[in-house]
Amino acid sequence: MGFSNTFFWGGATAANQYEGGVFEGGAGLSTADVMTNGSHTVRRRVTWKKENGETGATPLCFGSAERHLPEGAVPCLLEDDAYYYPSHVASDFYHHYKEDIRLCAEEGFNCLRFSVKWSRLFPNGDDETVNEDGIRFYQDVFRECRKYDIEPVVTLLHYETPLSLSARYNGFDSRHTAMAYVKYAKTCFKAFDGLVRYYLTFNEINCIDAAPYVTAGLINADPQNIANAAFHQFLASALTVKEAHENYPDLKIGMMLAYGPVYAKTADPQDQVIAQQEMNKTLFYSDVQMRGYYPRFKLAEYEREGIVIPAQEGDLETIRKYPCDFLSFSVYSSHAVTVHEEGEQAGEGNGGTKAHMVKNPYLNTNAWGWAIDPQCLRVTLNTLYDRYQCDLFCVENGIGWNDVVEDETVHDTYRVDYMKANIQSMKDAVELDGIPLMGYLYWGCVDMVSNGEGEMAKRYGQIYVDADNYGKGTFQRSLKDSYHWYKQCIQSNGEVL
Ligand code: BG6
Questions:
Q1: What is the pTM of this model?
Q2: What domains lie within the chain, and their CATH numbers?
Q3: How far is the CA of 86 from the centre of ligand 1 (A)?
Q4: Given this model, what pLDDT does residue 354 score?
Q5: Ligand 1 mean position to 451 CA, how many Å?
Q6: Cα→Cα distances 74→83, 135, 321, 413, Å
Q7: Which residues of the chain have pLDDT under 70?
Q8: Residue 233 phi/psi, 5° resolution?
Q9: Which of 30, 50, 346, 438 is at a distance of 20 to 30 A from 259, taking alpha carbons?
Q10: In angstroms, what is the span from residue 120 Cα to ligand 1's centroid?
Q11: Is ligand 1 within 6 A of the CB of residue 400?
């Protein structure tokens, strides 16, 4: 009754945090490439310029309540030492991909998740022709995976809309961006035919609410713009699934949800209501992508708020006809909410801050305030399976830590403890609760820049990368203790934890 013998074990990455090589191979810029570095206390910012020459930077990223660039500002790179952009070098996977894939293969991985940088293929997002250098780079990466029998899982959009589409069209606020995305997705299917069998359409699509710029390229995000962006991503995803089903029957297309169970802190029914409301904000996205239609609680909310779904004739039918083939999700931590306390928040966790969020007295946190919840995966898997009865795939789970190098390695017992508890919880869901699960991919298996903070200091990896918060270092790779632990876990198919 353990994990199936086709279970995917591996790791997950994203181009904007890992790949680097932003100015190589004819790539265009993405929204991530104009995001500055930050930390737990300093928000990342988006740099911009106005026609009159005025420049500046606005915190449009995760954790900020800001939803607009100043009037007339266009996001762009600024040649100014005051700003550092971590995506430009990141972990330099662009030049280290052979080594990284080999190290992951030696760790026992049979699966690796990457994202394709859309603007590496279409520099402006909607160009007539594709950049062949970009195609070649990813083909080389996927061939390298195949050499070691590693199944690549490809996220088509992981937190980086082509910058030009963001500047000209307010990203996915516009239908134009959705249609450009579908062309890009079709291009990937064709170019990577025979190399890639699993795609995810939009990373953490539900984070449009918490970080509309990061998730959907919005530089202006009122509630109506956010609703438009969500709809256009649903439509783009459905058209992508349609293309796969009609022309590439071997492909499986997944949706990707940022999931963090929200617990009521007390037994006060009021706390249950707010916990449920917070969960619904997340489940709205999976309801549409897995069931094919908007849930009634969302339609009621839109009606109350005067928000209109920008559907054209046939769109809702397309969304209904082409839900995703499986549900993939990230899960790092849980959240606690109550109406009885105010003030100190428990940190953010992934998926954004929740209303009424407080510290859970039963859980420890890491230095960034993310709760370490050993039951998280079991709760998540049960909730999602009960609701959708579909194939589930955990494509992100992990812990960020300020690792210290000692004796030329990192003794990351905290990471091993975290993984042990999380994998045990997942195993309980599979063995005791009978949940079908496709696989487990550890987030940031090779150290990379954190998304929320834009710093290297928040490391997740089992493979250490010698680089600091400013992209300085040798970029040499070395193996942490957790690498050896995960290797024996994989070798035993999760029996030895
Ligand atoms: C997920 C994202 O939300 O969490 C990743 O898909 C991100 O891109 C990961 O890196 C961990 O978050 P952070 O902010 O610690 O990097």
A1: 0.97
A2: 8-334+362-491 (3.20.20.80)
A3: 14
A4: 78
A5: 5
A6: 16, 28, 37, 45
A7: 343-352
A8: -70, -35
A9: 30
A10: 21
A11: yes
